[in-house]
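Integral membrane protein, pasting as requested.
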Amino acid sequence: MATRSSLATGVGRVLIAVYGILALAATGRSVVQIIEKFSFAPFAYTLSAVAAVVYIVAMIALIAPGRVWYRVACVTIGFEMAGVLVVGTLSLLDHQLFPDDTVWSYYGLGYLFAPLVLPIAGLWWLRKHHRTAAQATPAADHRSDATPTAPVGE
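Structure tokens follow.
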């Protein structure tokens, strides 16, 4: 039986909800763009799909308890932050690279800058709850009373 993740309380619930909303929005946007007009801006539409996957994984990682999921959340949200900064900057500097907007274009302007603010809030929340997240490890991870397993091949 898994213990409840301390990240899914208070502000963490708001973060999870916003990640869920952005996951739905980015998934819908990228699916429509890819189906209807992929040849117009394949790079931009692929980046929107990548953003959707990032939001889905980040949401799951914030919900799931344990050290592994905490690390997944850190890596995913860190990647999101880098993506928003790189894509946002490139969309300002090279309009030809992005003939159509992505979720992260202009630092998330089309989403009221939520893609820029969300990873900052997410990384802050993860840093604030580092110790409690590490302690919210699923019971299956505690194997002190379990019998050792034989090495593979024996």
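Note for the archive: Residues 33 and 45 are 6 Å apart (CA to CA).
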